[in-house]
Design goal:
The chain is of the alpha+beta class and 294 residues long. It has eight helices and 15 strands. The radius of gyration is 18 Å and the shape is globular. The N and C termini lie far apart (48 Å). Bound molecules: 2,5-anhydro-1,6-di-O-phosphono-D-glucitol and manganese (II) ion (2 copies).
Length: 294
């Protein structure tokens, strides 16, 4: 049974990159344990104006301090922090993260996760420059889905806290699951046409409100997750740097695609750390379909 550590060695991951991945991966245990005593909202808002859950700030503080102490990280950009946190200037890698994705589902015990991307150099780079991307999903199992730019593998944590390989060379099939955020009355004409087309072709609606969990089912079964441009927000809701780039990178590595509805979001060089973009991510055919609608 291959462990995550063995996979990193076999994939020739540079030493510091491997250490950073393991340090963050090892926070899944403490994060899971913290859910029970952090069930409420923190009473604060983040840079996107959203109410922070206690777990948002807990997970953010935990991962940030572990990375700071490691001396291995140049900078961290987190969904829960206004500005980029500068750490060790001579370090090679920078980390982008959504410490707790899907936080409105904490109270109802549905699956949530942690999304991470790692760049060489600074944080504001196009997603196609990622050196590694992964997410931990806190479901019935704790799983870690990772790519170092050479395909996608999924690990599951055993009772000793070791990640064991579940699946390698993961490929997104051309499936029919679909889930879209945004209120229906605020959808654009283009998005309405798209969703109608998919549903008429047998698309099955599955949307939980946790990007990481919703994407994970698309990765396995195929289909599309969308958070579109709406009449109220031309740039949608999800954040390019912490959410869309790492997940989009994983989708592309699994033979799928990610788009803002017109072209790949992986080519966008971010100018602001909290910038948003509409997103469609999943099976290649599903993404081609939205890009074909004018
Ligand atoms: P976060 O919990 O990190 O703020 O992310 C929430 C995101 C994403 O996980 C999810 O798909 C989407 O927002 C849900 O938004 P709606 O409640 O508007 O559906
Ligand atoms: Mn999120
Ligand atoms: Mn979050």
């Amino acid at each position: 049974m291959k462990t995550l550590q063995e996979y990193l060695i076999a994939s020739h991951a540079p030493e510091d990159l491997g250490k950073i991945i393991m340090l963050i991966a090892d926070q899944a245990g403490p994060i899971r344990s913290a859910f029970i005593s952090n069930q409420n909202y923190a009473g604060s808002t983040n840079s996107s104006g959203e109410d922070q859950a206690e777990m948002d700030t807990w997970a953010d503080a935990r991962i940030t301090s572990v990375l700071q102490e490691s001396g291995l990280v140049r900078a961290v950009a987190s969904e829960e922090q206004e500005d980029i946190v500068q750490m060790s200037p001579s370090a090679k890698y920078s980390v982008v993260m959504d410490p707790l994705d899907g936080s409105s589902l904490i109270k109802v015990n549905l699956s949530v996760g942690t999304i991470v991307g790692i760049y060489e150099g600074d944080v504001l780079q196009a997603g196609n420059q990622l050196r590694a991307a992964f997410y931990m999903l806190y479901g019935p199992m704790t799983t870690l889905t990772i790519s170092l730019g050479n395909g996608v593998s999924i690990f599951a944590m055993n009772k000793d806290g070791t990640y064991i390989l579940l699946k390698e060379n993961v490929r997104i099939p051309e499936g029919t699951l679909c889930g879209s955020g945004g209120l229906r009355p605020e959808w654009t004409e283009k998005h309405i046409r798209y969703m109608n087309e998919i549903e008429c072709e047998g698309g099955k609606n599955r949307y939980s409100g946790s990007f990481v969990a919703d994407f994970h089912q698309i990765l396995e079964y195929g289909g599309v997750y969308a958070y579109p441009a709406t009449k109220k927000s031309a740039s949608g809701k999800l954040r390019l740097v912490f959410e869309i780039n790492p997940i989009g990178f994983l989708a592309a590595q699994a033979g799928g695609a990610v788009s803002n509805g017109e072209s790949s979001t992986l080519d966008i060089v971010p100018t602001k750390v909290h910038q948003r973009t509409p997103v469609y991510v999943g099976s290649k055919g599903m993404i081609a379909k939205i890009e074909a609608i004018r």
